Hints:
Layout: H1 2-42, H2 48-68, E1 71-75, E2 79-82, E3 85-89, H3 97-103, E4 106-111, H4 117-128, H5 140-147, E5 152-157, E6 166-168, H6 179-192, H7 206-214, H8 218-221, H9 226-241, H10 244-258, H11 262-281, H12 285-298, H13 307-320, H14 323-329, H15 341-349, H16 356-363, H17 369-382, H18 388-391, H19 399-412
Antiparallel strand pairs: 1-2, 1-4, 2-3, 4-5, 5-6
Helix pairs in contact: 1-2, 1-10, 4-5, 10-11, 11-13, 12-13, 12-15, 15-17, 16-17, 17-19
Amino acid sequence: MKSTKLEDDKDLDQDDLDRKDSIKSVIDVLQSLSKAIKTLKLYPDTSRLRQKFITELVAKFKGFLDEYGDLILKIKKSEFFYMGEVVYSNPSLEESIAFKLYGDGIRELTFTEGLSEEELFDFIDVVTRDYKKEGEDDDTVTKLWEKDFKSIRYAVVEEGKDDNLLLQIPEKVTTTDSSKNALLKAYKQEMTAEPKGESLLQPAGVEVEIEQIYGKPFSEIFTLTPEEITKVHDEMEIEKKMDLVSELVDILFHILRIEHELDSYSEFLKHLEKIIKTLLLARDYKRVLPILTTLKTFSRDGNDFTNAHAEETEKIIDALGEEDFLHQLVPQSKFTGTEDLDSISMFISMLNKNAIVPIANMVGILDNMKARRLLCDVLAILAKDNIDLLYKKLEDEKWYVVRNIVYVLGKIGDIKAIPN
C-alpha cells in the first residue's frame, strides 16, 4: 500500500509539472502571436521580418499542438485563460486581442492540429481590423465564419443569454446568399432544427430581406441620423488628435520586451534610433525625454536580457552623442533664446560619456552665451566621473575653449578636477 501511494504521488507531481510546462508553452505562443500582430502593422507584405515572425509563430503553435493537443482558450474581457490560469492580459482595450473577441461575443477559442500559415494570417487580419472605422456592419464572428477555418474553432454567447450558454458556430453552408443572410440561416438552422429543405426566409426582394436582417425599413438603414453624424465627426476629431508617433514607439518597445533574438532586437532598436533622431532634429525634445528614460533603464528593467542586449541598447544612446549628429542638432544659427533650454539640457545630460568631447568642442564654436553656458553646465554633469576626457582640452590652442573647460572643472568642484 505504501509503495502504491508513493507511485501515485509521483504521478501527481509529474501531472503538475506537465501542467506548468503546458501553461508556460501557451504563454510563449501568445507572446509570439502578440509580437507577430504588432510586426504585421509595421512592415509590408514583402518584409523579411514579417515573414520571420509568422514562420516562428506557426512553429510555436505546431510545437504546442504536437506536444499537448488542442489549445483551448477561455476568453474574459481583456484576458485569455488556459487550464484556469491567465496566459494573456492586455488592459489596453484598443490593442487587446481578448477584448476584441470578447466584445463580439466570443468566449472560447480553440486551435487544433493542422493549423496553417494561411489560417494564421487570416485570423490575425480578422482580429486586428476595425470594421466600424472601415464602414462595415460585419463583426468579428461574421468575418471568422466567412474564412471557414479548418483548424480554428470558436464559441459565442447567444445575445441576451448567460455566458455559460455558448453556441458553437456551425460549419459554413454552401449558399449564394450574402454572408449575413447565410450566417442568419445557419444560425436559425442550428437553433430551430427545421426540416431539411424548408426555407427560413420567405421568397422576397433584396430590400425585404435586408429589412428582415436589420429590423428596420430599408429607407432608414443607410440614412445617418443627426446623432450618428455627430458621432462620426467626434471620431474624426479623435483621430486627428491621435499621437501616431507615440503609438509606434509603444509598439516598438512592446516588441523589444519580448524579442530576445539579438539580430531582430538590434534591427528594432535601429528603427527606434531613427525615430529619436527625427524627433530631435524637429526639436521635439519633450517627446524624446520619456523615450530616452525608458531606453536607459530598459535592459535592466526585469526583461531578462543578456549583456549583449544591454550593449546594443547602449549603442543607440552612443549614436545620439556622436559629434556629427550633435552638430546637426545644435547648429549655431538656430540656437536661440526661444528654445526650451531646460529640455535640451535634460536631453544632453542623459547621453553617454562618448558625448563629452564633442560637446566640449561645440562649446568653443557657439557665440550664443546662454547656449554656451548651458552646454558647460551639462558638461559638468557628464564629465563628473570622466574628468580625464577634459584634460586634453586644456591644451587647446583656442583660449576661449580653455576658458570654458576651466569653468566646467570649477563647476565639478572636485579636487580630482585639478590637474597636477
